Amino acid sequence: MSKLNKDILFLIFEELQDDSKSLFSCLMVNRLWCETVIPILWRNPWCYSNINYANKTYLFFIIACYLLDDIKEFITEQEIKLPSGSNQSLFFDYLSFCRSINVTTINSIISIGSSLTYNRFSMQQEFYFLFMKKCPELRYLDMGSIKHQILCFPEAKVHLESLYELRCDTSIDSLYFYGLSRSCHYIQKFIIDNINTKPNYGIVKLIEVQKNLKHFEWEDNFYEVHFKNGNPYDEIFLALEKKAESLNYLKVFFLRVSNYEHTLFQKILPKFYKLKILIIESYFYFDGEQIEKLKMQGYHELEILNIGCNELNLIPSIIKNSGGCLKKILFNPYDSIDYKDDSFNEVSLKFIRNIYKNCPLIKYLSIAFPPSEEHFAEFEKLLKICQNLKSLLLIIYNMDEIKTEEMLKNGEILLKILIRSAPANLKEIRFGDDNLRFSLENLEEFLEKWKGRHALTIFTMDSNFKRKDYTKLINKYESDGVIKYFKYFSHIDSLSY
User: Fold this and answer.
1) Fewest beta carbons less than 10 Å away: which of 165, 327, 479, 486?
2) pLDDT above 60 for 312
3) Which of 431, 440, 485 is nearest to 462 (CA)?
4) DSSP assigned state of 270
5) Domain range for residue 29?
């Protein structure tokens, strides 16, 4: 492999662009590999989660090497400690490969030189000036709570015109976003951390001027007690509504504020008809009229649906007119289902039927139903029809209190169904434990008959699996390759996707 030409190596390394550990290893093979990997690593060098940037003096060294001599002299006079050897030439023009700025990470690196706020600010200012001078284009900008007016640097406008992804928070002054809106018209991925409960009209303007916005994320991140009379949502989502023609990814997380603040979002959600991915991690409810609108509109291109904000009857309303493209339907059953509701039996049955009638391509599925004969039969029908299914989060729940014997019977029925009808692609099962137990004998029979299929990953909340006899059985089938991975969780949140 070390003899492959540079073009082939580049294509291979491109596939590893998110795997910093492998890329760093490739640096050490030979000069050709090193020359090929460096541009990929430095495209976005601030994004690798396994790096502690505050302790990486070599990154600070590289930045310092770019500083002009008079700047170095000024910095030294300010008692900012530059790394030794920063006057020497670099092997590569690293910043010329860079296409990203992450304000928080860069600030962390630069803080190595000094702990004083003014000194850090001066060094940061110099870095951004260098970056705007060296970088041919800017693709990714994570602003954090930026303090520097990078818009004022020479050639900043040209660099910002190519911006593809923007991450920011709502504490940044609106004027900053007004400045960005003059240059950045082709942002495709916009991620907002909402830490300010007042509207940010600069963000509104920046959304309005986008010509091809495809990916939008919004996450509330403030103390609910600090929520004031201002509504930070309506203007944002009115602007977003105008991007329905291009938007294909929508993810929102709203804190537990009153339903009133989210009324507009609930009303306009059906208008995002081109969505491929819809993720709602919130705690408000859709009323009957809003659900009917979701039914009528439909998301004919939807592939991933992850909702944690409503009772089970909302999800069938979306998938019924989904166009048959859904591959993932995920939700946290304990947050999304009112098990005390008398309609749970009927709604869960309807949910199963909606899946096998409308989702032939489903690969990842969260599902909950009571242990009735009819529900088990419909679940088995789902397994037979949905042959692409890879992973199940499964909860068997009965509103009536049942004895251990009944739980073991439920477990026996379920395991037999899985052996008879589980699709060949099924590789992972996550078992909720409310009304479900597996005897050692039934579990061993199931695992023995699973031999020859894909090795199975099993997650469970059943405390029986902490017993020595169960542990011994699991270890045996892990050694045999029947079980790929097993883990016990004590809480449902860990069990969920």
Assistant:
1) 479
2) no
3) 431
4) G
5) 1-41
Average pLDDT for residues 58-81, to the nearest whole number?
Answer: 65
Contact 201, 174 (CB under 8 A): yes
The tokens of 128 are what?
A: 């951004």
Check: CB of residue 456 under 8 Å from CB of residue 462. no
d(CA 421, CA 432): 20
- In this prediction, residues 263-292 reach a mean pLDDT of 79
pLDDT at 356 over 90: yes
Q: Is residue 14 part of a domain?
A: yes
pLDDT tens, residue by residue, 378-430: 999 999 999 999 999 998 887 677 788 888 899 999 999 999 999 999 999 99
Domain count for the chain, please give it. 1
Is the residue at 358 inside a domain?
Answer: no
Closest residue by Cα to residue 495 from 430, 435, 434, 436? 430
Which carries the bigger pLDDT value, residue 471 or residue 69?
471
pTM recorded for the entire structure: 0.84
Phi, psi (deg, nearest 5) at residue 141: -130, 115
Alpha-helix residue ranges (DSSP H) falling in 27-173: 31-41, 57-65, 69-77, 94-97, 103-110, 117-134, 156-160
User: For residue 36, is it within any domain?
Assistant: yes
- Would you give the DSSP letter of residue 428? E
Name the DSSP class of 178: H
